[in-house]
Amino acid sequence: MRYFFVVLVLMALSFGGGFWWEYSRARSVQTELSSANAQLAQANDTVRLSRLQDELLTLVEDTANKNYGDAATASTAFFNHLNDELSRTTQPNAKSAMQSILAQRDQVTADLAKADPASRDMFAQMSAAFHHALQPVLGAP
Asked: Which of 1, 13, 97, 100 could pair with 133 as two cysteines, CB 3.0-4.6 Å apart?
């Protein structure tokens, strides 16, 4: 009977030790996974903001080349993407720049419809303000 008790205690200890080892390993992996998910979320934010910046630079180029029809189409997509991103972003500088740019949507749309060269200057100013606001987020120079 004593032998049975000793075997039972040893089995319980070995099970407990194995469980503890696996639990601590799983906890370590969970911590790494949480860190990787946070980095992935930040990278996704950076990609989305970079795409917006690229769209804005394309608008500057289209208006500089007097492609107002292409710019009007791209402008609609840009402002829609900007509005979507505004609800996602948690960066206060980026959020403020996006709100400022969205406030100019109607004026820019009207200028593009009239093929007004002033729309290029507006897009250039938007691009500069957006770039400045994203420097801390994107690590841009």
From this structure: 97
